[in-house]
Amino acid sequence: MRIPSNRGLRRIAPSAFSYHRLKSYVSNCRAVVVPYFGGPHVLELRPHVQVPPLKPHEVLVRTRAVSVNPLDTRMRSGYGRCIFEPLLPLILGRDVSGEVAAVGASVRSVSVGEQVFGALHPTAVRGTYTDYAILSEEEVTPKPASLTHVEASVIPFAALTAWRALKSTARISEGQRILVVGGGGAVGFAAIQLAVAAGCSVVTTCGSQSIDRLLAVGAEQAVDYVAEVDVELAIKGKFDAVLDTIGVPETERMGINFLKRGGHYMTLQGEAASLADRYGLTIGLPVATAVLLKKQLLYRSSHGIEYSWTYMRADLEGLIEIRKLCEAGKMKIPVDKTFPITQVKEAHEAKDKRFIPGKIVLELD
């Protein structure tokens, strides 16, 4: 079936637009797939990939922009192999910004024709590098009118990852002190803005190129971890929560030591997927659970703090709050470069080789 043009979709009045009509109109579309794991060269932009039927709680989004997340490049390279290899080919992509093309029978929070943004769960197999992305109702919300699709597409996955750590796990509150290790990345940048909006004081570590940017969004101190002779001496006082986006043994040790008793240390570099890849799901996941439990008991006993691995998850309450922060001008993640979806290989190569340190966005016409 011919891929519909944007003009064709717009001619269908939203009030008359039903999922059943769309199903007969759109049965396939373009999508970037990973047929096997490897470098950027494995990516294929296929012109006719099936659009599956919507379930009652799902939303079909006509994609306008998607961001390239570190998870995308890692999945392409084989991260999570034990989970994803039996499911190949995969469609990459977590974030999306676009328009609602159709909704499932039970969806009430968004409607056809509405501009939306959102993010899929990290383990989703059908991602957002496609003309038509499918998300659950819990994973999508109206797009902030103040943001373009490109600007909106870089926010949900990173901001929801930070939200899970700071709001759901640490339950930060006004007046607390927060340390963000690696504030220059998208998750760290979002975490700083979330903490500042909650009335917290924030200290962060980053590269020299990020210092001005992080101070501008409210960080009280930004420590250059490369130029500073002793990062730990440069950081003063204790903290109620530490979000470690780097997650190497040195930053873990530093973060733990900076916490007050009763504080929370959260790292993005949990070992569940890597251990599962190494030993297989049957052995790897129990090993990962044992490693996490051991650390939790150790640090609770030795330092009186809570230790956790943190991951993004669908959270409509969090996504709505993030949208409100965007509308108030309190949440924005800079975009450094955009590529058309036809240049997805070049975009991944630029990310792999760190030609572009900040956020990259793929645009779909």
From TrEMBL:
Boundaries of every Enoyl reductase (ER) domain copy: 38-362
CDD domains found in the cross-reference section: MDR_like_2 (cd05289)
Any one Gene Ontology molecular-function term assigned to this protein's record: oxidoreductase activity
Lineage top rank: taxon: Eukaryota
Transmembrane spans: none
Name of this chain's protein: Reticulon-4-interacting protein 1, mitochondrial
Organism (species): Mucuna pruriens
Taxonomic placement: Eukaryota, Viridiplantae, Streptophyta, Embryophyta, Tracheophyta
